[in-house]
């Protein structure tokens, strides 16, 4: 146990010092994106990995959070930073509604319902022009020129989310979540109110995803429905981040987020310009192959199957 | 009245193609209990095969059905045999592992297509591409009607196969009750491979007949994957008759929705019906028709 | 040169990398309006001049970004010549507008609707659609029912081709079909729409027969090199490269302030027309350009308006059923 604490402290220190050492806006930008994905991936993992409700619709919460911030700035003329306070809350409210509709369903049916919910939200954001500006999108001015405020905010958000997820999973709730995943009927017969705890899990999950969305609005300063309600780039990416890192582990999605951003950027820039240009076209392909490989050979992700990986490399021929 | 009839006719025709897409999905979902989120992407591969045959060998898209269907059958065999079946033996936390695998497969297929063909739009023309005929005031275009006829024909062949052949009966038995079928001596590993391959071949056929009407680019698969599961849930899992009803219903609903609510609500109509059916009519239209 | 793959955060990654790692002194480019908007924010924030050549949504130059310059006109101005053509030649009473639900499509349609109100043309139908539909007949049959004098469409390539093909199938015959630039001027449009592309009119920003230095030359060179025709999107990018070269020559140093100053002072002739960045209305650093009207005639895109520049006479009125091979 001692050793893992040392490692955590080391990682935390490294992340805090990173922007002070690496001055490049470009690398800071990449780490900011990765930290944002730590929040999204972790949130998805709480609901899907721990509670067993595999959501294909996390873009709903991300988009709701982003649009809360955007609409506050655009319609009420107040700072989009208020979105950081309200984005999570509106996303959680939407989460309650989604839960009310979708938790009547189990397994693959739940997954399908969340896909449909995500697409419906995207289409609403596209067509409700008086509120969302539709496909014109919402554009604001960034508050800070420096990356540092964004960086530390993203870091704080990521750390807070992981702390909360860890706390929840160590509590009684965490036990309920896992028993729902393992066998919902058995959990029910043990007297666990499964609907209630599924909603609790969803509430926490949607809250943090909404915060990440509000952060995205503030940081990117531009959103439109196809960007923040995207099935492919948000909902599915959240799943892949979780899968690669390892579901039902605290550190899995966090690692997955860094792997995803790392693979994407390494290949998109043709391995830092060393490889021929066509390599840059293959970043999504490489990531897809990585996902398939992980599912086939590391069913529990890099973190979940860490002992297996360690054995593989430590074994001397 | 003309508006209504034209809209209805368009909906039915497109519904035929939807049905063909949905039947493959319903077979896979029925037999394996998984959602195939690479379904539209398999269709995309079928379309590219058709396109290549047309662009380089000048083969008519309808004739290339003879190539695209067997080719995708093989692709389906490979996917099920080497990527999906092994997962059944792997102990994983989430039972949805196979579904997530199909997400990965879909992504890789799309990116391979982008790699080879770039993101440019491709299209084909046939001898009757721009031919139109009129039924009273209703305009029908030839490729759409041909696509509809081929969809119906393939569906009939599939029915015959499922009802009259031993293999077909085994598939139906597995779809209805997997454990009972296994007890009866059905080799479920083999059945899953054949089912997935069959599903892939059918959706390839849908892609091939769709190409002369529509166009092609690597990302075309995603929206059709979504349509495929809407149809499947609408019709009821594992029910081929249901998939036909589901496809045509979706086609008509979209078409009328576009006319009477507005074109931008077209997609939303499908998803809203889908959610309503999922919640208030679990089991889909199958429950009403009892087939 | 890097590819932004059409995602705003990737566009931002590329811009950040170019600015901080590769230390570029000026950014150029931007095709999709969404990505352009995101990159404009980065440029402004980093105080680095950004020359936009295609992204045309109005609001990009209305944000008070003083480091952002735009070579192409804003979307709302694309239709100015079309409006002139309509009021002089067609004199329509009613118009139907269909547009793609995208940043470009929505802002163009909005602007055209306002112009119609001003010109006293009644908008009988005004609907957006999701890009990538197969079947546009449900909406087109509604247009047919409304029987407008003009059908105005803002669509990208494949949707444009399908809209025209299906209009033909429905025998939908307004007096004129007008495209709001984008898909309707691309050489791939007649390839995909076939017969149905004939006599369709579109707004455009450029045509090779315009009396601009090097325009025809550029067109021929492009044709020889890529074995296909080019149109305004290509000319924009080509002209942007010349503007950047000119700016870098004139700038006192490669510092962003000097480059910005040089951009502000730009006053040159390019294949795309005169370039000079001015501020007017809500817009800042916007190049003002007069748009034109083109028409597909026998598979070629011909400049038909303004009259004094046109080498070919417009075809109007059109007997659509004959053009489409029904009669």
Q: How would you characterize this protein structure?
A:
- The complex is a heterotrimer of chains A (317), B (291) and C (327).
- Chain A has 317 residues and is an all-alpha fold.
- Chain A has a domain at 24-230.
- Chain A contains 17 helices and two strands.
- In chain A, helix 2 packs across helix 12 (231-245) and helix 12 (231-245) crosses helix 13.
- The model of chain A has no long low-confidence stretch (mean pLDDT 89).
- Chain B is mostly helical and 291 residues long.
- Chain B has one domain.
- Chain B has twelve helices and two strands, in the order H-H-H-H-E-E-H-H-H-H-H-H-H-H.
- Chain B has helices spanning 2-32, 39-57, 65-89, 97-117, 142-164, 166-176, 178-183, 188-210, 221-235, 240-260, 266-280, 286-289, and strands at 132-135, 138-141.
- A two-stranded antiparallel ribbon of chain B has the order 1-2.
- With 327 residues, chain C is α/β, with parallel strands linked by helices.
- Chain C has two domains: 8-73 and 231-287, Rossmann fold (3-Layer(aba) Sandwich); 77-209 and 291-323, 3-Layer(aba) Sandwich (Rossmann fold).
- Helix content of chain C is 39%, strand content 20%.
- Chain C has helices spanning 8-21, 33-45, 80-90, 103-119, 137-146, 157-169, 188-193, 215-226, 232-250, 256-264, 320-323; strands at residues 27-29, 50-52, 68-70, 94-100, 122-129, 150-154, 176-179, 201-204, 268-270, 273-275, 277-280, 283-287, 292-297, 300-305.
- A seven-stranded mixed β-sheet of chain C has the order 5-4-6-7-8-13-14, covered by helices on one side.
- In chain C, strand 6, helix 6 and strand 7 form a beta-alpha-beta unit.
- Chains A and B meet through helix 5, helix 12 and helix 15 of A and helix 3, helix 4, helix 9 and helix 11 of B.
């Amino acid at each position: 146990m001692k050793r893992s604490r040392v490692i955590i402290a080391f990682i935390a220190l490294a992340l805090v010092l990173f922007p002070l050492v690496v001055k490049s806006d470009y690398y800071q930008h990449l780490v900011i994106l990765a930290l944002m994905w730590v929040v999204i991936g972790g949130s998805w993992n709480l609901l899907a990995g721990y509670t067993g409700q595999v959501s294909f619709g996390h873009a709903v919460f991300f988009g709701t959070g982003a649009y809360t911030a955007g609409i506050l700035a655009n319609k009420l003329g107040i700072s989009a930073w208020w979105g950081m306070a309200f984005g999570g809350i509106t996303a959680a409210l939407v989460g309650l509604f989604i839960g009310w509709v979708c938790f009547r369903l189990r397994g693959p049916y739940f997954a399908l319902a969340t896909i449909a919910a995500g697409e419906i939200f995207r289409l609403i954001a596209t067509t409700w022009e008086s509120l969302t500006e539709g496909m014109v999108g919402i554009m604001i001015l960034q508050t800070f020129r420096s990356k540092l405020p964004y960086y530390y905010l993203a870091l704080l958000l990521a750390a807070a989310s992981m702390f909360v997820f860890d706390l929840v999973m160590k509590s009684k709730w965490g036990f309920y979540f896992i028993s729902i995943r393992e066998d919902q009927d058995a959990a029910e017969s043990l007297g666990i109110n499964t609907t209630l705890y599924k909603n609790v899990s969803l509430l926490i999950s949607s809250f943090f995803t909404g915060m990440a969305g509000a952060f995205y609005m503030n940081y990117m300063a531009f959103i439109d429905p196809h960007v923040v309600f995207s099935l492919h780039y948000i909902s599915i990416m959240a799943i892949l981040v979780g899968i690669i890192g390892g579901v039902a582990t605290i550190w899995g999605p966090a690692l997955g987020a860094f792997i995803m951003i790392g693979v994407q950027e390494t290949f998109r820039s043709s391995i830092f310009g060393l490889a021929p240009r066509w390599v840059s076209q293959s970043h999504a392909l490489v990531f897809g192959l990585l996902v398939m490989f992980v599912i086939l050979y590391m069913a529990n992700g890099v973190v979940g199957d860490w002992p297996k990986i360690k054995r593989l490399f430590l074994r001397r021929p | 009245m003309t508006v209504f009839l034209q809209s209805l006719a368009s909906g039915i025709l497109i519904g035929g193609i939807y049905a063909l897409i949905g039947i493959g999905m319903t077979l896979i979902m029925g037999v394996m209990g998984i959602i195939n989120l690479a379904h539209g992407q398999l269709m995309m591969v079928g379309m590219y095969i058709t396109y290549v045959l047309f662009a380089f060998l000048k083969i008519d898209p309808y004739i290339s059905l003879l190539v695209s269907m067997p080719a995708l059958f093989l692709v389906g065999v490979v996917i099920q045999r080497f990527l999906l079946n092994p997962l059944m033996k792997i102990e994983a936390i989430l039972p949805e592992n196979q579904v997530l695998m199909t997400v990965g497969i879909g992504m890789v297929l799309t990116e391979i297509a982008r790699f080879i063909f770039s993101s440019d739009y491709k299209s084909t023309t046939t001898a009757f591409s721009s031919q139109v005929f009129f039924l009273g005031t209703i305009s029908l275009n030839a490729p759409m009607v041909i696509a509809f006829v081929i969809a119906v024909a393939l569906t009939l062949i599939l029915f015959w196969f499922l009802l009259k052949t031993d293999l077909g009966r085994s598939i139906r038995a597995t779809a209805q009750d997997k454990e009972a079928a296994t007890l009866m001596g059905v080799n479920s590993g083999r059945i899953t491979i054949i089912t997935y391959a069959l599903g892939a071949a059918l959706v390839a056929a849908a892609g091939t007949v769709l190409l002369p009407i529509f166009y092609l680019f690597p990302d075309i698969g995603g929206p059709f994957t979504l349509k495929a599961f809407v149809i499947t849930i609408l019709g009821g899992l594992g029910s081929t008759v249901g998939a036909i009803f589901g496809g045509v219903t979706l086609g008509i609903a979209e078409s009328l929705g576009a006319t009477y609510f507005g074109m931008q609500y077209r997609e939303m109509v499908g998803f809203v019906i889908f959610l309503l059916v999922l919640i208030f009519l679990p089991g889909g239209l199958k429950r009403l028709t009892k087939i | 040169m890097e590819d932004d793959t059409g995602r705003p955060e990737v566009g931002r990654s590329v811009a950040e990398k170019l600015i901080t790692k590769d230390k570029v002194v000026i950014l150029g480019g931007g095709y999709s309006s969404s990505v352009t908007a995101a990159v404009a924010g980065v440029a402004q924030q980093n105080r680095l001049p950004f020359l936009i050549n295609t992204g045309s949504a109005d609001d990009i130059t209305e944000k008070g970004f003083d480091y952002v310059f735009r070579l192409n006109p804003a979307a709302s101005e694309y239709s100015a010549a079309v409006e002139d053509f309509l009021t002089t030649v067609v004199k329509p009473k009613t118009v139907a507008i269909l547009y793609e639900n995208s940043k470009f499509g929505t802002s163009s349609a909005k602007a055209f609707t306002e112009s119609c109100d001003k010109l006293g043309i009644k908008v009988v139908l005004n609907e957006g659609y999701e890009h990538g539909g197969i079947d546009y007949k449900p909406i087109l049959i509604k247009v047919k029912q409304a029987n407008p004098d003009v059908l105005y469409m803002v669509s990208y390539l494949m949707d444009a081709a399908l809209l025209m093909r299906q209009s033909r199938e429905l025998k939908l015959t307004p007096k004129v079909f007008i495209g709001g630039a984008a898909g309707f001027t691309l050489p791939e449009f007649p390839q995909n729409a076939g017969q149905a592309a004939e006599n369709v009119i579109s707004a455009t920003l450029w045509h090779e027969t315009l009396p601009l230095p090097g325009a025809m030359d550029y067109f021929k060179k492009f044709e020889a090199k890529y074995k296909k025709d080019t149109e305004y999107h290509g000319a924009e990018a080509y002209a942007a490269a010349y503007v950047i070269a000119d700016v870098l020559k004139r700038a006192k140093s490669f510092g962003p302030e000097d480059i910005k100053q040089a951009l502000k002072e730009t006053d040159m002739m390019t294949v795309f027309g005169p370039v000079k960045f001015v501020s007017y209305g809500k817009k800042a650093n916007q190049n003002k350009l007069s748009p034109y009207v083109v028409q597909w005639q026998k598979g070629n895109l011909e400049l038909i308006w303004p009259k004094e520049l046109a080498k070919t006479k417009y075809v109007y009125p059109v007997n659509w059923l004959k053009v489409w091979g029904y009669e």
